[in-house]
Amino acid sequence: MGKLLTLLVALCLSQVIGAERIVNCYWGTWANYRSGNGKFDVSNIDAGLCTHLSYSFFGINDNGDINSLDTWLDYDLGFISQAVGLKRQNPNLKVLAVVGGWNEGSTKYSSMAGDWYKRQNFINSALNLLRNNGFDGLDLDWEYPNQRGGNWDDRSNFVTLLREIKEAFAPYGYELGIAVGAGESLASGSYEIANIAQHVNFINVMTYDFAMASDGYTGFNAPQWAVENAINFWLSQGAPANKLVLGVGTYGHSYQLSDSSQNWPGAPCRGAGNSGPYTGDSGYMGYNEICLNNWYTVFDYNNAAPYAYSGDQWVSYDNVLSVQYKMDFALSKNLAGAMIWSLETDDYRGQCGESYPLLKTINRKLRW
């Protein structure tokens, strides 16, 4: 009997230890419209590198109903069905519909969460979206409760919304995730952390965007200390480690230096850096753009992050080494896993060497 009990305990422990960590791959479907080597569609996705594929984004209308933000791409081109079809390549892949995002704002979500009828509209439309298209769950990316046109009641209303979604999803086995602001000041104003954690399968913590050109000086997009502080804050407020997913940005924030001879972190800048050839947004460059530049590159070990500069252009980003530091921290805290924002700005074509270098680094640390 004693030997049997020991064997059962060992078996249970091995199952816990061997449980696969999450690697959640966000996909900004609009990258289909980029030109040349920046164009990204379903054919560019390696389904074996992700446990979850987060199809971004859907929006809502004023009544709380979920709607497509690009019906031509989602349905006419068949991107949704093609994304769900990736489960033929990886039968364990979960494909999630992501609702929200920065451009959707907060006002409509605040109104929906605070109104019972609009919440029911949202939940019913979510069920229809998932059932009709073969999605495995929903990721709600409200940026952010109690901010950008929201109000203080958003914090408790968000808990109510998530509880009602969870109850509606339970008969179907759908997963429910959320994407959340990372830092203490943002998170404490937007979330009742312990309460929301009860109702979701996992929490994608957006541990990036800690600095940008609007600050007036150069800074690191995701320095290790800021990432660790954010995760430790979420843990301290009652978020279970096994529901926290650490976010990695496959992009950098770029700056135009005020004085090209002052090119260190904290140096003054006069605004956003030049746009990259694929992404086309000033102040923002994909890793697949950064790695092609022959800029002078420095790895700052105090921040466990690289930066690069050329003339009056300066960029902070993540590379393979900085991602390794982040994954070591995630493992040390026994987190649920990691996510990337987003697939289409990793070096998915392998123009600078190995394809998907950042995503593969995450997999090597967490899964392989």
From TrEMBL:
It holds the Pfam family Glyco_hydro_18. Residues 21-368 form the GH18 domain. GO terms for cellular component: extracellular space. Keywords: Glycosidase, Hydrolase, Signal. InterPro entries: Chitinase_II/V-like_cat, Chitinase_insertion_sf, GH, Glyco_hydro18_cat, Glyco_hydro_18_chit_AS, Glycosyl_Hydrlase_18. SUPFAM superfamilies: (Trans)glycosidases, Chitinase insertion domain. SMART domains: Glyco_18 (SM00636). Residues 1-19 form the signal peptide. GO terms for biological process: carbohydrate metabolic process; chitin catabolic process; chitin-based cuticle development; ecdysis, chitin-based cuticle; wound healing. GO terms for molecular function: chitin binding; chitinase activity. Belongs to the glycosyl hydrolase 18 family. This is GL10180. It comes from Drosophila persimilis. The gene is Dper\GL10180.
